[in-house]
Amino acid sequence: MKTIRHIFMIGLDAFYTFLADDGWAIASHIALSTLMALFPFLIVLTSLAGFFGSKELADQAAELMLQVWPVQVASALSGEIHDVLTTTRGDALTVGAVLAVYFASNGVESLRVALNRAYAVTETRRWYWLRLESIGYTLVAAATALILAFLIVLGPLLLEAARRYIPVVVESNERMLTVIRYGIAIPAMIVALFILHAWLPSGRRGFMQILPGIIFTMIASLISGMVFGQYLARFANNYVTMYAGLASVIIALVFLYFISAIFVYGGELNAAIIKSRLPHGVSLQAAQLRAPGETLA
């Protein structure tokens, strides 16, 4: 009973801090920045895929990115995303792509602001280094998405080889492809969350210090996606009636808003747990300036 009460108090402290740090407003900022960064990121993705000689990989990568989104949300944006990915551009990896990288990196910057507030740290690094770091994360994310997409394309080929040489019953291509997509998308999200919490904000945190918030973010995001998907299945026409041609954008924005709020609360939850383990008189900000192991002393 004491343990349950302790967990409840930590969760409550995280919620109060979430409110004090303007968590809802920050979540709105992240959602809008992410949506605005999505299409420039897809342009970067297409440019890189074309540079490596296979623009079809960009389509696979985008499908992989949307795999863990509710079907209703992903389908609302699928037409616009397809138009971006199939448009031929002569400015690949030139000025247009450079601008696309810069705008896409704004999504990373919004996440940095949220985590710095959640962990109660003040950013001391130069703004241009932070922007270069965000651009680096964007490029790495695009390259990783293409590599993962290549593995998905490679999956059916390996499956056909298995059918020829291994005397076992192998699942159909379609079902196996779905398993592969989820098997890649979910671990990729977990790795991305670890990178964001560990390296994006100022200060230093250990693996176990950021794990609770990441677990909460994954579970709550999946539940939120299922609930929002069920809601859209019943009431999606309300958005079409109210927002007309903007319905797809509003649906994506509302979904991203909920996911962003969950992400911010995950950071606040980690901070609340770290605070609960600190010696008396040691502030959260001071603790994160030490080595991760020392904050628990």
Low-confidence stretches: none
Mean pLDDT: 77
For the record, the count of structural domains works out to: 1
Instruction: Please tally the helical runs, counting DSSP H or I stretches of 4 or more residues.
Output: 10
Counting DSSP E segments of at least 2 residues, the number of strands comes to 0
Q: How much strand?
A: under 5%
What pattern of helices and strands is seen along the backbone?
HHHHHHHHHH
Q: What structural class should be given to the helix and strand makeup? A: mainly alpha
Shape: globular
Please outline the major beta sheet. Answer: none
Radius of gyration: 21 Å
**First-last Cα distance:** 26 Å
The portion of residues assigned to helices is over 70%
How are the SSEs placed, and which strands pair?
Elements (H helix, E strand, L loop, with lengths): L1 H19 L2 H29 L4 H10 L5 H16 L8 H24 L8 H39 L7 H27 L7 H37 L3 H30 L7 H4 L10
Helix pairs in contact: 1-9, 2-3, 2-4, 2-5, 2-6, 2-9, 3-6, 4-9, 5-6, 5-9, 6-7, 7-8, 8-9
Description:
By secondary structure, the protein is mainly alpha-helical. It has one domain. The chain has helices at residues 2-20, 23-51, 56-65, 71-86, 95-118, 127-165, 173-199, 207-243, 247-276, 284-287. α2 runs antiparallel to α3 and α4 packs across α9. The longest helix is centred in the middle third of the chain and has 39 residues, at 127-165. It is globular, with a radius of gyration of 21 Å. The two termini are 26 Å apart. The model has no long low-confidence stretch (mean pLDDT 77).
